[in-house]
Amino acid sequence: MAREAHPQEFERINEYTWELSRLFDGRMNVPVRIYGNERIFEQAFGDRSIQQLVNVAMLPGIVRYAMAMPDMHQGYGFPIGGVAAFDYDGGIISPGGVGYDINCGVRMLASAIYYEEIVPYLEELLAAIYRNCPSGLGKGGAVRVSRQDIERVLETGAEWALKNGYAERDDLACTENGGRLQGARADAVPSRAKERGRPQLGSLGAGNHFLEIDVVDEIYDAEVSEAFGLFKDRVVVQLHCGSRGLGHEVCKQYLRRLQSVPQRYGIPVPDRELVAAPVDSPEGRDYLAAMFAAANYAFTNRQVLAHFVRRSFEQVLAGKVSEWHLTQVYDVAHNIAKIEEHVVDGERRKLVVHRKGATRAFAPGHPDLPTVYQETGQPVLVPGSMGTASYVLVGTEHAMQETFGSTCHGAGRMMSRRQAKRKVLGKDLHRELTRQGIVVRAGSMAGLAEEAPAAYKDVDEVVASVVGAGLARKVARVRPVAVIKG
Amino acid sequence: MGRWEELEHTADLALHLWGVDLADLFATAARGMFALLVDLEHIPLTEERWFALQAEDVEILLVDWLNELLYWGEREELAAYKEFDFVELTPTSLQVRVRGGPATEYHGYIKAATFHNLEVRATEKGYETEIVFDT
Questions:
Q1: Is A417 close to B109, i.e. CB distance below 8 A?
Q2: B3-134: which CATH architecture?
Q3: Does residue A438 belong to any structural domain of this protein?
Q4: CB of B118 within 8 Å of any CB in chain A?
Q5: Which of A47, A137, A272 lies closest to B10 in CB terms?
Q6: Contact B88, B45 (CB under 8 A)
Q7: A425 in any annotated domain
Q8: Best residue in B12, B39, B104, B115 to probe A by mutation, most A CBs within 10 Å?
Q9: What is the pLDDT of residues A271-315, one digit of tens each?
């Protein structure tokens, strides 16, 4: 393990960028870069996230930098907020660089409904969503699927949802990779993972996962927000969840299987949670195929949930508001590794980009973006902590050049769950949110306290940092009016 | 008897564990983990299960052991285990009878026991380690 770094060992590149030279530790292959204002940079020394980032910089085939976004905090293996790209040829893939909740991500749906129109029905609407979209621990999913269905979900992702009536065609275009990662193989997914995933398809889960009704309260870029379908004072929906028990099981079993692999290929591993395999090895290919399959499950999970949110809107609002339809703004994956092409030192290279608690933020004109977003760039969804604002950003060319088209994914934790529970009581928080006019439904009061806004960094500051660093531009801000916490 | 202490971790849960011998360390790890999720005192001893696990080294065995317990706890619709009788325990294999029962709810959630900086150390007084759980 690397020794602890001190702030004075970093070089300040600009107001929002801090670099630790590879000379810091002889085992580093590239420098470490942290994005954030001075306060966020100093906060990074409060836990082990920098040490974890230094470990990542030691992995073979890493390109350019081991990076952390301003919402960074300590994880296990990679820090959360970590971005690292490895050469497809000669580089590695690491399950610890993706995490247990494979393709945890965020989806946003927009509507033409004005906030005032919805106020009288808000409680009823939230109750309908709560009923139709299972949340919390160990709860079953919204749909029943057969063993064969699960195989198809794993290999075809959201296309399965479209075929089975849980999606509209435009939803898929407005999902990263069209909701289907090519190269996914159901046979690479352990049977126990499938067994856990089958009853959970179409469920939110627990922890920091949520489903939220928001209202657009600030527009920063009128042209881009219009293209995204976002207008001031209109209602939007955000949902945050991932691949449930299926993803956890895939990560767990591959981390286990890969324990002896680094030695076989001579890969130095500074932490056992960072075990890795060469991308182009039998072990690496199997993990990639299984991880892509779990990612497809997560895309499908969010798609099925979106379907039931739409149905809830229809059940409660049909005939009461003029237009209750929800259109998909976008769906982003923020725990994932993908094969992408990027220009490095003037040369186009095939890379495996790990984003662990970081969001893809592709610039205008990128071939992977749907036609509707070719001119604007990719919508980036950055949820704030519970009860606080969330942001919609857009990808930039600068992010392409510097961070492989990546930016932050949320507010980022600052306080441990234990501290949060000590400082905040679930019922006090519930009262405070109610006072602010936010309707809340939570699985447990203790779970609610763990997610208290005080436990997180200030999302405004995180967003200001990525915008200042040129890694995204602000498009709109939304504030919550109703929250379901898993 | 073994003991555990919860460590501060920004986003996840972590335990420092001590055991007089390996069996004590493994039992303490399991109790400590379930104590993060339930009130152990209220867990009845109504269920019994046998595990036999093999691993390349003691760290892998420990992670396997805890993840196997989590899996069964979730599969049994939120059960917890608190009594462990090891028939065999070497650094690379175990056979054990585990006992516990249903919990009315978990007041937290653990996705998995991780390998993060995991090292089981033999000391003069037995064994100790720190383990991080992804939550």
A1: no
A2: 3-Layer(bab) Sandwich (3.55)
A3: no
A4: yes
A5: A47
A6: no
A7: no
A8: B115
A9: 999 999 999 999 999 999 999 999 999 999 999 999 999 999 999
Q: Which CATH number is A139's domain given?
A: 3.90.1860.10
The runs of H, that is alpha helices, within A204-243 are: 222-228
Q: Whole-angstrom Cα distance, residue A46 to residue A26?
A: 24
Q: What is the structure's pLDDT at A376?
A: 98
Contact yes or no for B105 and A137 at CB 8 A = yes
How many structural domains does chain A have?
1
**H, E, C per residue of chain B:** CCEEEEECCCCCEEEEEEECCHHHHHHHHHHHHHHCCCCHHHCCCCEEEEEEEECCCHHHHHHHHHHHHHHHHHHCCCEEEEEEEEEEEECCEEEEEEEEEECCCCCCCCCEECCCCCCCEEECCEEEEEEEEEC
* Mean pLDDT confidence for A5-31: 97
Q: What are the residue boundaries of the structural domains of chain B, listed by start? A: 3-134
Range of the domain at A343: 7-414+456-485
- Residue A67's φ and ψ, nearest 5 degrees, are -115, 150
Mean pLDDT of chain A: 95
Residue A357 at interface with chain B, using a CB cutoff of 8 Å: no
Q: Which residue among A307, A334, A409, A430 is the active-site one?
A: A409
- Residue-wise pLDDT tens digits, A407-430: 999 998 888 877 887 888 788 888
* Interchain CB contact of B9 with A (< 8 Å): yes
Catalytic annotation on A398? no
Residue A432 is assigned to a structural domain of this protein: no
Helix axes A282-317, A122-132, angle to 10 degrees: 140
Instruction: Write out pLDDT tens, residues A377-386.
Output: 999 999 998 8
* Interface with B, mutate which of A43, A252, A409, A422 (most B CBs under 10 A): A252
For residue B121, pLDDT beyond 90: yes
Mean pLDDT of chain B: 94
This model of the complex carries an ipTM of: 0.92
